[in-house]
Amino acid sequence: MVIYMAGNKVNNIDVVYTPWQNLKKTPSMDVGQVGFHNNKSVRTVRVEKRINEVVNRLNRTKVERKPDLKAEREAVNAAERAERKQLLRDKKRREEMERLEKERQAEVRSYKNLMVADKMTSNKEIASTQKSLQELEEDFM
Fold first, then answer.
1. Which of 16, 18, 106, 111 has the most CB atoms within 10 Å of its CB?
2. What is the pLDDT of residues 63-72, one digit of tens each?
């Protein structure tokens, strides 16, 4: 709630209470001027005599904060940048893992490991083992 204290030096003033949703401001209105959407929700209280105790208490407890909007915006931007960097790092890590997995799968499916010279035998080596052709076929089957 905002209390406008323009009349705090005079007696016999009207204080208007309404929810902030009921306030209506159009571009044609002067600075400080407001209207109401629903006049039924407006309450007016007449203050006959100024009560200094209340005014003094309000003035003592009044706190005006001037936020550093630039610093707050920079902090939000820095947090957003950090989040984007983290997402990018995670995405690169996932892509690298997928690439390595694809390479591993391709290596498993390839015939490179099957065609190793150490595992191969020539016809001359087979003939030198002194096995007959029929024995070799039986071993094969």
1. 18
2. 888 889 999 9
Counted residue by residue, the chain has a size of 141
Instruction: Say which residues have a Cβ less than 8 Å from residue 112's Cβ, sequence separation at least 6.
Output: none
Give the domain ranges of the chain: 13-61, 66-116
Residue 84 has which token pair?
Answer: 């984007």
Q: Do residues 38 and 22 make contact, with C-beta atoms less than 8 angstroms apart?
A: yes
Question: pLDDT for 24-76, tens place per residue?
Answer: 999 998 888 889 999 999 999 888 877 778 778 888 888 888 889 999 999 99
User: How far apart (Å, rounded) are the C-alpha atoms in residues 8 and 124?
Assistant: 117
CA 69 to CA 54: how far, in whole Å? Answer: 33
DSSP secondary structure letters along 2-57: ----TTTTSSSEEEEE--GGGEE--TTSPTT--EES-GGG-EEEEE-S--HHHHHH
pTM for the whole structure: 0.39
d(CA 102, CA 99): 5
